[in-house]
Amino acid sequence: MTPVPKNLQVLGNELAIAWSDGAESYFKLADLRRLCPCAECQGERDLLGRLMKPPPRPLTSESYEVRGTSPVGGYAVQIHWGDGHGDGLYTYAKLREWTEKLPELPPLATAFPLLPVR
Ligand SMILES: [Zn+2]
Questions:
Q1: C-alpha 38 to ligand 1 mean position (Å)
Q2: Which domains does the chain have, with CATH numbers?
């Protein structure tokens, strides 16, 4: 059974999770945003398996701020980002996987130079 977060909070520029099995995870908000699992950010495959992906939206410093989080169905957490984006469901299973090894981050699409994320 996948452990669930006992405590999940934003600390500075990180999301900290204390898990039911005693493990702890710390994710940089910027990394989590870039790994947003929603269809808009990651694309969807059509019937022929082609990846359909809208042009990535430029991320601003607001994109890396978290307004809030809400648990979804006991298996995932939804993160509400400062720029209004919030479609991605971060499953607990995936967050645990990312705790071991973060996947390669997708390239940044920027219309503006990124502000450094502290
Ligand atoms: Zn997204």
A1: 4
A2: 5-100 (3.30.2020.30)
